[in-house]
Amino acid sequence: MKKILVVLLFSAFLLNGCGSGENKANTAETPEVLDVKLTGPEKVNPGENAAYEAAVSYGDEAVTDADEVEFEVWKEGEKDASQMYKAKQEKGVYRLETTFKEDGVYTVQSHVTAKKQHSMPTLKVQVGDADAASNQTEDEHSHNH
């Protein structure tokens, strides 16, 4: 009789352990999406200072501790000659100040890694007399991984 009682108690203990694991799985939070809003001037003159900002959020929370935030800048048709810049954080917004030296259509792309996600939104910039309207064929969409 003692053996049956021990087996029943052991079975109840096992079932209780399995049940509490299910509760933990059911209460786990659904992951949010990393959102990066890239803003800055879309028209500038050569030699003029321009500031670009990446406002990073995860759900409703601003991300002030991103793993990495960089800006990549290149002139259209010259992606191989792109330049990477580390972002400066100011009050939860990641910032780049740059100057475009010559006329042309440029792309500014932020590379943000945070919360085990990566986002790479882009922004086209018309510098000087460049014709941005005829150069809209390149992909301008955000990329999330």
Automatic annotation (TrEMBL):
Describe the location of the YtkA-like domain by residue ranges: 30-111
* The protein's name: Lipoprotein
Q: Which residues form a coiled coil?
A: none
Renumbered to this chain, the signal peptide range is 1-20
Q: What is the taxonomic lineage of the source species?
A: Bacteria, Bacillati, Bacillota, Bacilli, Bacillales
Keywords from the UniProt entry: Lipoprotein, Signal
**Which segments carry the region annotation Disordered?**
115-145
**One Pfam family of this chain:** YtkA
S-adenosyl-L-methionine is among the record's keywords: no
Q: Does the keyword Metal-binding apply?
A: no
Listed InterPro entries: YtkA-like_dom
